[in-house]
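Cross-posted from the bioinformatics board.
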Amino acid sequence: MSENAKLPPLPTGTFSERAVAWSKKNLFDGWFNTLLTLGSIAFLVWLIPPIVEWAIINATLAPSIEACAEATGACWGFVNANLRLILFGTYPFEEQWRPLLAMILLMGIICGSLGAVKYPSLRKAIIPMWVIGVPIIAILMWGGVFGLTYVQNSYWGGLPLTLILSSIGVIFAFPFGLLLALGRQSHMPAIKTVSVVYIEVIRGVPLITVLFMASVMFPLFLPDGVTIDKLLRAQIGIILFTAAYLAEVFRGGLQAVPRGQFEAGDSLALSYWQSMRLIILPQALRLVIPPTVNSFISMFKDTTLVVIIGLFDFLGTVKLALRSDPAWTKYYVEGYAFAAAIFFLICFSMAKYSAYLEKELRKGEQR
Amino acid sequence: MKIQTILAAGAMTVAAVAAQNAQAGAVLDGIKAKGFVQCGVNTGLPGFSAANAEGKWEGIDVDVCRATAAALLGDANAVQYTPLTAAQRFTALQSGEIDILSRNTTATTTRDAKLGLTFVGINYYDGQGFLIPKALGVSSATELDGATVCVEPGTTTELNLADYFRAKGMSFEPVVIENINEATAAFFSGRCDVYTTDASGLASIRTQMAENPADYVILPEIISKEPLGPVVAQGDEQWSDIVRWAFAAMVEAEEYGVTMENVDDMKANSTNPGIQRLLGVSPGMGEALGLDEAWAYNIIKQVGNYGESYEKNVTAKLGLERGLNALWTDGGLQYAWPVR
């Protein structure tokens, strides 16, 4: 490290001496901080033991209603007994290896694509992975060929559905949003107007309205006998919606790139697309990694709204399981806590990856 | 949820127009071509339609679809389910996304006449009631003046509640909570004096969600009529006949005492001309409906009669007695048109 010179002198003394010194400096520095520290400790002592007692000590994992009725703590047995319903929804029971495989494959492709930052050799594989992977996932989920029974997508549900909706959403919303952002910056009035109107209209309505329109109104405008798949309609709704938000994020990035960079591109006689691809976008996109990931995280969570149009995403299948037997209904806290934990895990990974990505891409600026 | 209401109203108007364009026989031909019945069900209402731990749909509403498939295609499992929310259900039917809607839907004049729908039978007679803690010391809904009432928004429940209190000249304070779990939790934690929904729902909430069910009572007043039943789109009369008589056959089978277990025996040995007609021993009924003569036999063999379906779903899951849904001979309202 080149910054060694700035580090404070190494602490001396025994461990306990150092600990006392550390806490004096950081926890009991003045009456206000002392009060805050004591208050926080009291709060944690008040908060944590009951939660631990409920969630772990008095909890039961046994997948039976009787065991849950006896337990004074959490009934994780509800999750245990309905795990497959929660994970895969109403997908035919005997065929649930298919969504499982599809989900693993999808996660593999996502990890492979994200890992390309670290392992440049993976970069060339990204497009082939998606081009080959997505049809395989589609075949696994739908079936109807290679001896797999056909499964309507009204039966898809749970974690695979959430992952499919959000990853397909990201893949299509990203380029679409980019085009909209460029369109909004364009000097051509027609393109600019269309982009501005689109972005403002979509941003002006809640996602729930977009989904509702796609699900309830849209089919009525189609000719008789023509039905566009409910899932596809929801997916398109999510893509259109997310793209509008991403467009504004990207616009922020474009505006933060100094004017001189655009002029530099022009002076090198690069075409519009060349200078965008080689000079502007690499800088603009790097600047907006945090808000972009922010958009993805909020989109990932927004996919739960598809429950209002009768699709069961991961949160929807938890509700489905709660209603599978009225005796389970009262364990909704456990069900929602489980869903929250899975959602947190995924969103937190996204946030961590974005922090890592920022660090990787800033290497050029470090010495 | 104002936006939803407006959109739904718009959707219904368009739907009514769309319905008139449907071609005669189109639904039935479509089902025969694809080999299964597409059935719209509730996204999760135990006893009526809910997914079990294996993700399979179960309930008395589901059984209506299964019976129809058994009658028409000879296989009760030839059904594909589309879970629908309340707002989506009529659009799905009108746009042809589903063939039959069996989703605890109340039959009303506007729905039947204005939306281009046909209600083909009533498989559950429900009505709205009140659940209160015993400690409130109230024995009749007429004593509820000034009460706070927990209610779910956007349903006929909310409207019935307002109608009832206005008609009685009483005031109430609504506590409107979207989610049933939160609404019931609010009630049991004492945030409101009264919880109101359909009587079938009250009974299950009382037995399943209350710490001590004996501390709560359902008041005797039922303030609305909620005849729930399967619906099809207008325009394919043969198809609506098949659904109507598939359900009637389930009730008629119970009247004759024909069950899943004894149906083979009845078919071989019964000398009752009514049973012989129903089970196709003396032919004619199947032909009249354009079905195989074993249509009703298939229903009873694979799905069971109405009483069995009720027992297996409503009584087992919700602990509800037959009540209004008993056969007319037992003082209930279930009265099948004769299969003859």
